[in-house]
Amino acid sequence: MTPTAEDQACIDQLHQSGNYQVLSKLQPATEFNSATAEKNHKVCIIDTETTGLDTDVCEIIELGYQIIEFDSNGHFYKVLSAQNYLNEPKGEISAEVTEVTGLTIDDVKGHTIPWDEVAAEISQVQLCVAHNASFDRPVVERYHDVFIDKIWGCSVAQIDWLKQAHVGSRSQEFLCWKVGQFFYGAHRALDDVQALTQLLSCEISDNKVPAFSFLLTAVRQSKSLIKATGAPFDVKDALRSRGYRWNVSERVWQRVLDDSKLQDELAWLIEHNTPNPNVIKLKATDSFSIRAR
């Protein structure tokens, strides 16, 4: 929404004072750039609201996504589809979930996600992106196989917001405020998707390129899962600080790493008395799935 002349004068006055920052309410875009002759690709920006945080058992109560055309440099073009579906779970919706999402069991009662329709749309895309793909991907894969063979990207893990935008928090709401200078109704699926789309279209870094371009660069990197087999107990804090996570079932510290950084990481492990790590090459379609755990 374009501000009125009166509103714009107030905004300009507040900005010029140096004491205020004015945020705009997000007006979801349906087109970001004019079409070009270049062949474009399709990405699905996706979000789920669920009954809990355990990706092995939580149930989807809301699914939202947008399918958008993009080019190899990370520019968005037209929004081809925007969908939001409610879903009645078999279990309960806790008071905590309702507090975050605003959704109650009455809101979703009788609703189901038309998975065949969703799959028909998702089958057309090359890439799925979520703000926390390590959560959303395992959840949706339990509901439909169409998500399994897709490449996934994560705007939390695969954009260095501190380096490229000088923002220390990776909270989507905070990034929208600091980078995009807008606010929105958070924690409903399509609202979050539309806000993330806008955020990824914002130009960041000294080169002023779309944030999405940094995610694409990370997605294109081949990756490996490193298991620090035999790591001494006294190295655990150093491993944790480097991004390793404890695999309870296998009792080993592990992390996913770009192959371009693999040799340096192996050298670091040797220096820290872990000379025989287990390195597993990941497929492009494994990132953020249970297969990369």
Q: How would the blueprint of this fold be written?
A:
Blueprint: H1 5-17, E1 24-25, E2 41-50, E3 60-70, E4 76-86, H2 95-101, H3 105-108, H4 115-122, E5 127-130, H5 133-143, E6 151-154, H6 161-165, H7 172-180, E7 182-183, H8 189-201, E8 203-204, E9 209-210, H9 211-219, E10 223-227, H10 236-241, E11 245-247, E12 252-258, H11 262-271, E13 278-281
Parallel strand pairs: 1-7, 2-5, 5-6
Antiparallel strand pairs: 2-3, 3-4, 8-9, 10-12, 10-13, 11-12
CATH superfamily of the largest domain: Ribonuclease H-like superfamily/Ribonuclease H
| Total number of strands | 13
The figure for the number of domains is 2
Structural class by sheet pairing and helices? alpha/beta
Q: Write down the overall geometry.
A: globular
Mean pLDDT figure:
95
Task: Give the % helix.
Answer: 25-40%
The main sheet orders its strands as 4-3-2-5-6
- Terminal CA distance reads 44 Å
Which architecture of the largest domain does the CATH hierarchy give at level 2?
2-Layer Sandwich
| Rg measurement, Å | 21 Å
**Number of distinct helices:** 11
How do the helices and strands follow one another from N- to C-terminus?
HEEEEHHHEHEHHEHEEHEHEEHE
Low-confidence stretches: none
In the CATH scheme, the class of the largest domain would be Alpha Beta
CATH names the topology of the largest domain as Nucleotidyltransferase, domain 5
How is the biggest beta sheet arranged? 5 strands, mixed
> How much beta, percentage-wise?
15-25%
